[in-house]
Amino acid sequence: MSDRLTVRKTYKLYLGGKFPRSESGRTYPVKSAEGSGLANAALASRKDVRDAVAAARKAQPGWAAATAYLRGQILYRVAEMLEGRRAQFVAEVRDARGGTVKAATAEVDAAVDRLVWYAGWPDKLSQVLGGANPVAGPYFNHTAPEPVGVVTQVAPQGEPLLGLVSVLAPVIAAGNATVVLAAQEQPLPAISFAEVLATSDLPGGVVNVLSGRVAELAPWLSSHSDVNAVDLTGVDDAELAAECERAAAENLKRVWRPVRPDWTAAPGLDRLRACVELKTVWHPAGL
Amino acid sequence: MFEYAPAPESRAIVDIKPSYGLFVNGEFVDPKEGGAFKSVNPATEETLAEIAEASQADVDAAVAAARTAYQKVWGPMPGSERAKYLYRIARIIAERSRELAVLESIDNGKPIKETRDVDLPLVSAHFFYHAGWADKLDHAGFGPQPRPVGVAGQVIPWNFPLLMLAWKVAPALACGNTVVLKPAETTPLTALAFAEICREADLPPGVVNIVTGAGDTGAAVVSHPGVDKVAFTGSTAVGRLIAKSVAGTGKRLTLELGGKAANIVFADAAIDQAVEGVVNGIFFNQGHVCCAGSRLLVQESVAEEVLDRLKRRMSTLRLGDPLDKNTDIGAINSAEQLTRIRELTEVGSAEGAEPWSPQCPLPDTGYWFAPTIFTGVQQAHRIAREEIFGPVLSVLTFRTPEEAIEKANNTPYGLSAGVWTEKGSRMLWAADRLKAGVVWANTFNKFDATSPFGGLKESGYGREGGRQGLEAYLDV
Amino acid sequence: MFYDVYVHSGRLYRYARPASDGPSAPGVAPYTDGHGRDGWWSGGYEAPVSPRKIAIMTSLLASGEALARLRGLPGVDQVGLEQRAAGLATRSIKTTAKAWAIDTAIGMVDLTTLEGADTPGKVRSLCVKAMRPDPSDPGCPKVAAVCVYPAMVPTAAAELAGSGVNLASVATGFPSGQVPLEVKVADTQAAVAAGANEIDMVINRGAFLSGRWGVVFDEIVAVKQACGAAHLKVILETGELATYDNVRAASWLAMYAGADFIKTSTGKVSPAATLPVTLLMLQAVADFRAETGRQVGVKPAGGIRTTKDAMRYLVTVNEVAGPDWLTARWFRFGASSLLNDLLMQRQKLATGRYSGPDYVTVD
């Protein structure tokens, strides 16, 4: 037994680069896979969603305007920071989802590797998704991807770190800002991951992490009119997902609803494609 | 005075039947419940033909035919063979382009010079371009051996009837899908002519099915459980309804919706070409263009000069018989649309903006609206915010480039934008900041099969044309 | 106060000196631009500066302002301009409109022969044709003018006397213009003295392309002075100016310097007249009138051979400059073979049958 009393962490939200409590003052108990109490997490409200979207909107233009090289470097920096806190995350992941240390380690390692993979994308995306179009006339014509803007996401349930990183990394790699709702029952690795983000030169507000109930917050994440795309990956209830899609239709948000993603498989470009818009620019070529 | 004598294109080249059935499984069939509606020439109000109205049962049959064709014939067919069918279609359209141009002009009201020089060349090119993709999809950047989606339900508008058909059908077929397409109720004739072309090309039955009708038919198509992918071009209001109806079904959806594009003219623009671009931007196709440059944002220091030139240029626009080869502005497509244009322009006047139109006698029969500009328009005016979809331009001014961009982007729409400046870096700066899927710099309203087209924000999602446009019809 | 003007590398330098200074000695550059460079005549056509030229230059407040104005002209987008021209070219001119346009076009022709092999006989034949283009139809309008080399002016003047057909002479070292200003002026004076009432001069393209727009301006002023009452058409030779921006600038420069007409081409350089370049010049004259109140004419020359071409030009005049320009006073075609095609089309309209080359005269 240790003769020293441990200092426990208060898990809060990550919003606009700061770690506030929920404006509602609510919390909910988070249990380990074995059922023991781990901590109280902030139970975010619709007003926290509102504030997070505002923070994301504020941060997004600057993040998109950063050079692709810089965005790649910052993502790589996030990977470095995560690697440095590997032991902590192995413990948190194992607490959250149970299983072996080996399995938890694999998840953390995969999350680091995924960040490294996406760190290479910002400065390649234009070349891969865009290109010059050989129009039948005297025009320069060029298509390039641009970030869709502000994305709201419901992170997958059950894969508290790898799932979160897998949905979040492509969105910010492409130059978007995001408000992500952590896995409902396993939010602690996500909140700790926010600490990684906060120490990685990622501008405040580019990623905002909420913890709370999917059923309560997903509709608000889907209906907010200042949101450009919604990622419903973590909405497992089909009826709720359909309701969210309908809410998203109100301002014609882009909706991403994957079927049974396999987080251990190599990610394709799907998620990157889903959070960019293609802009085509024409200009005459003449004297 | 140099008075241009009438120069009408001959109507004799088209043979409009008194009535048309639905095109299902390679045959023209009568609707199961026998409903019909009329297609009217908007320039004369004469009835052109009786058109079958497809009910749910007809849509069921069309979707079933498309499903069978997808599973048995078109899906399994090697891409190289699909390519040959599409090349065939491209060629037949080119051969029959004069006839189709006249037909489109009669049914839609748009000038023959546009159907002849814009619509039809683009239609044929669109099939030719996509034909070449059919056996090269492995190289389209969506991974090896991308699969088709299945049956596509497609609903298209009346402003470019055959071109919108091409934008929908060509990529769908190239990627191995089959289609059930509903043309707009006011402009079904060229889609039905296209059905004949499918037969002429020996396209296997069921690959293309065309169901005519109005909103109910369209709703039946997009909500049909046998449809895997929905593509719609039309208003944002209807697009919103479709997005809601598709919610939770797992269907793929692309939407190309409304717009309220800003056309920004900087003081250093090549002014004559800018004015020409402004005219083309809003008066092309009577302004029935989702990407029309309906908001002119002109730098205050040159506003007066630009307006003078704009008015001078507008005075040379010739409104009248769509089949006259010298007509620049044809008929408004329908009485309903004319009513909407009138309502919004009346609101514009009531809100304090000032309308101006050139001397422009309107024919006695048919649906017509004189080309109009509103000056003194403010951001808060409805005519600066709502899509009018007619030959009506709102003129606003700005002082600095930042203000121009801010005003241009201050709309829920995001389909297209124009920017006019002779300074290269300013052009790139503006193009970068404009929230629009298509930015025309020192040009406007240009389209090409190789160039992806589509919007941001409430102008919809998905792209049509180019390599990127294939994504909508591939299981990626 | 007098002003001198010096254009270098596309920039305008203007500097003043007291009037009492008077002209400097020929060949001596009295001023520099402050950067050690010579004054406005440096790099001209290398002739010693004549006292007359000094006289022109020392009264050029207008020149300085004109040149400054040229710097502010809006750019021209080639693709947009050519598309506008192509759009106008699709106008379909039929029946009554065509009949009117053919007669109007005939009346706008500057019937031209500019060959080394021109003889008095050839010129006389052309003059007869100009006065009665279609011998079978006295109702056929006369052409606007006959256009010849200066040496042929006496012959043409004798033929055309009293006919109402104008007599144009090219001058100023046509077609290259690569002769000293004195020779250009003398060329002009001789042509006018021999009876030409219209002078088609060429601009100094070398000076224009090397940025010495003041030189171009001064030469036009000098030639205009030499023309006296004769109308001056200023040939820009657009095929050598290479860009539409240059054409717009040269058009304004010529108009400020006193041109009565601006003309596209000599016909000796390809491309000669094109519809887009003519459109641009029509835009320039319309804009110039709007700004100064003075109307200037336009003459496309070279390469216009068919009635269809001529219709396209008239449509462009009508829709760009406006109906005010649709007379021979303000618009001309510099052409030779065009006339016979117009005549054949005219016969077709009259008879309903296609005509042939044997039914028009070969001159």
Structural overview:
Chain A has 287 residues and is an alpha/beta fold. Chain A has helices spanning 46-65, 68-84, 86-97, 101-119, 125-129, 162-173, 188-198, 214-223, 238-249, 270-274; strands spanning 27-31, 37-42, 131-132, 139-147, 150-154, 177-181, 207-210, 229-231, 254-256, 276-284. In chain A, helix 6 links the parallel strand 5 (150-154) and strand 6 (177-181). Chain B is α/β, with parallel strands linked by helices. In chain B, helix 2 packs antiparallel against helix 4, helix 3 (97-108) crosses helix 4 and helix 9 packs across helix 10 (303-314). Chain C starts with a strand and ends in a 12-residue tail after the last helix. In chain C, helix 6 (153-160) links the parallel strand 4 and strand 5 (166-170). By secondary structure, chain C is of the alpha/beta class. Chain C folds into two domains: 2-59, no CATH class; 78-359, Alpha-Beta Barrel (TIM Barrel). In chain C, the strands form two sheets. In chain C, strands 9-8-7-6-5-4-3-10 form an eight-stranded parallel beta sheet. A two-stranded antiparallel ribbon of chain C has the order 1-2. In chain C, helix 2 packs antiparallel against helix 11 (244-257) and helix 4 runs antiparallel to helix 14 (337-351). Chain C is globular, with a radius of gyration of 21 Å. Chains in contact: A-B, A-C, B-C. The interface between A and C is small, with 7 and 9 residues. Chain B: The active site is at 256. Chain B: This is Aldehyde dehydrogenase (Acceptor).
Structure keywords:
heterotrimer, B: 476 residues, alpha/beta, Aldehyde Dehydrogenase, Chain A, domain 1, Aldehyde Dehydrogenase, Chain A, domain 2, 2 domains, seven-stranded mixed beta sheet, six-stranded mixed beta sheet, 20 strands, 37% helix, 17% strand, C: 363 residues, TIM Barrel, eight-stranded parallel beta sheet, two-stranded antiparallel sheet, 14 helices, 44% helix, disordered N terminus
What is this entry, summarized?
The complex is a heterotrimer of chains A (287), B (476) and C (363). Chain A is an alpha/beta fold and 287 residues long.
